[in-house]
Write a structure and sequence with these properties.
The protein is α/β, with parallel strands linked by helices. It is about 50% helix and about 10% strand. The strands form two sheets. The chain has a seven-stranded parallel sheet. Strands 2-3 form a two-stranded antiparallel ribbon. It binds coproporphyrinogen III.
Length: about 350
């Protein structure tokens, strides 16, 4: 394979020969190659061992033919050196045994020396770059301050984010102190990934859709903007992603990012208007469409591409991560279809 710059060009709104495609959570349990490694090692062990993490990062590149690799890590990793006792409990998802809920607990969070505390992740970035040898670009990532705060306050996954939002409403000063600290760690972490060789960065604000635009503007936007503003100096494009964000898209675009992620609840063309024509967009197939019969899956892929209309600055992706039981052959079929069909959409416009 020759050098593939489709993804990076699309991030910058440049025309490309075919629409680039990758998948959030493209490395993971739906892949037999991943399950084989996972049978021998915990998630945290894989993340801590650069050779394993690099191998898992490369699996979907080899199997699927995607236009970008995403670093194998987890958004919760930087919380460990901040002082949190993180475990991925079988069947439960992440658990933080010492959640942060008071001003004193926020004050006790430790600053992080990236090159020391997250040295193994940065080593994975270097190793993956060497092994990819320019075939496709590597995306680094981190959780956004709000989404990380939710895990850290709730102590795990949550449906209503009751404790996090209660802290926000009851004690805004402590909330903002916490988000300032998280913003600093996240910006340092992403900048370190870029220095280590990540060629694009994605900021995951996965749960931000639980907020109204008013609350987003007051409690989240300044902190996400602080992160995204600092990343401008890295010179690599940044993707700003959230879900359930239909009413938040203009504000997320204001906060920053070269590319704005769209979930499947908004038609892509409508979402792009909300974000503004000066930005690129990424999305937005429903992850459950990958379970549909092939003709229905194809129809849905084509609809996303038709809504993008061949305009420069579209990166094909799901609206959220691949689900664990997804059939691999359907994921492969989507890559092929995006590459074939997007040529035609370009010729027609
Ligand atoms: O995209 C990739 O292929 C790279 C790897 C990656 C992982 N986590 C590995 C992982 C990425 C990009 C993430 C991001 C992440 N982690 C997010 C943001 C994306 C999103 O889905 O909204 C979030 C919210 C997390 C936190 C997290 N990690 C949860 C809630 C869980 C448990 C639920 C689940 O999917 O199992 C994890 C575990 C996790 N992180 C797994 C993987 C491959 C599955 C665990 C396993 O292998 O046992």
């Amino acid at each position: 394979m020759g050098l593939n710059d489709r993804f990076l060009n699309a991030c910058c709104g440049q025309p490309v020969d075919r629409t680039p495609v990758w998948f959030m959570r493209q490395a993971g349990r739906y892949m037999p190659e991943y399950r084989a490694i996972r049978a021998q090692h915990s998630l945290l062990e894989i993340c801590a061992q650069p050779d394993l993490a690099a191998e898992v990062t490369l699996q979907p590149v080899r199997t699927l033919g995607v236009d970008a690799a995403i670093l194998f890590a987890d958004i919760l990793l930087p919380l460990i050196p901040m002082g949190l006792d993180l475990e991925f409990a079988a069947g439960e998802g992440p658990v933080i045994h010492n959640p942060v809920r008071t001003a004193a607990e926020v004050a006790a969070l430790r600053p992080v020396q990236m090159e020391q505390s997250l040295a193994n992740v940065l080593e994975t970035v270097r190793l993956v770059r060497r092994e990819l040898d320019g075939q496709v670009p590597l995306i680094g990532f981190a959780g956004a301050p709000f989404t990380l705060a939710c895990y850290l306050i709730e102590g795990g996954s949550s449906r209503n984010f009751l404790r996090a939002k209660r802290l926000m409403y009851a004690d805004p000063a402590t909330w903002h102190t916490l988000l300032d600290k998280l913003a600093l760690v996240v910006a340092d972490y992403l900048a370190a990934q870029a220095r280590a060789g990540a060629q694009a960065l994605q900021l995951f604000d996965s749960w931000v859709g639980t907020l109204s635009p008013e609350d987003y503007e007051e409690y989240v936007l300044p902190h996400s903007r602080a992160v995204l503003g600092r990343l401008a100096a890295t010179g690599v494009p940044v993707i700003h992603f959230g879900t359930d964000t239909a009413t938040l898209l203009p504000l997320m675009a204001q906060a920053g990012g070269d590319v704005i992620g769209l979930d499947w609840r908004t038609p892509l063309d409508w979402g792009w208007e909300q974000v503004g024509a000066d930005r690129a967009v990424q999305g937005n197939l429903d992850p459950v469409a990958l379970f549909a019969p092939r003709p229905e899956l194809e129809r849905r892929v084509q609809r996303v591409l038709d809504q993008a209309g061949g305009r420069p600055g579209h990166i094909f992706n799901l609206g959220h991560g691949i689900l664990p039981e997804t059939p691999v052959e359907n994921v492969k079929a989507v890559v092929e279809l995006v590459h074939e069909y997007s040529v035609g959409v370009r010729e027609a416009t």
